[in-house]
Amino acid sequence: MKERIQELADKSNLEVKEAERGFSVLSNGRQIRFFFKEDKLIEFLLDPELASVEQGSADDSELKEIPSADEIKKTIVERTTIEVREVVVTDVRMPFMSMVFFMVKWAIASIPAFLILGFIYTLIILILRGVF
């Protein structure tokens, strides 16, 4: 069966690659079809114009070229709009104990920052003492 598929693909100047769940048909390195069954693939290779192709739905017989990754990226960029929204926070409703725990965590998290700033301050002082 696989020899027959390869023979038909060579006649049609197409490349067939076996995937995990089916067969991918490529033309000039670009995927143009994906088949789940060997018989549908052979039907397509015998006559690409008349073949009823199983892709997505059973009655999808239109041959469509799958876009490349660059074309997909370009389409996404063209369709993406960036909307800037300004937000002003006017109130934060938080239970008292949750706020206490949050502030304690905040204080503990600031200790490494103060150590780094102290180290930088010490370096600056040592350099200035050496210069003057």
Quick summary:
By secondary structure, the chain is mainly alpha-helical. It is built from four helices and three strands.
Report on the structure:
The chain has 132 residues and is mainly alpha-helical. It has a domain at 2-79. The protein has 4 helices and 3 strands; from the N terminus they run αβββααα. It has helices at 2-11, 38-46, 69-79, 96-131, and strands at 15-18, 23-27, 30-35. A 3-stranded antiparallel sheet has the order 1-2-3. A hairpin with a 2-residue loop joins strand 2 and strand 3. Helix 1 packs parallel to helix 2. Mean pLDDT is 76; it is low at 50-62.
Based on CA atoms alone, the radius of gyration comes out at: 32 Å
Portion of residues within helices: 40-55%
Largest sheet: 3 strands, antiparallel
User: Strand order of the main beta sheet, please?
Assistant: 1-2-3
Transmembrane segments: 103-128
Keywords: Membrane, Transmembrane, Transmembrane helix
Name its key features.
132 residues, mainly alpha, 11% strand, elongated
Task: Give the topology.
Layout: H1 2-11, E1 15-18, E2 23-27, E3 30-35, H2 38-46, H3 69-79, H4 96-131
Antiparallel strand pairs: 1-2, 2-3
Helix pairs in contact: 1-2
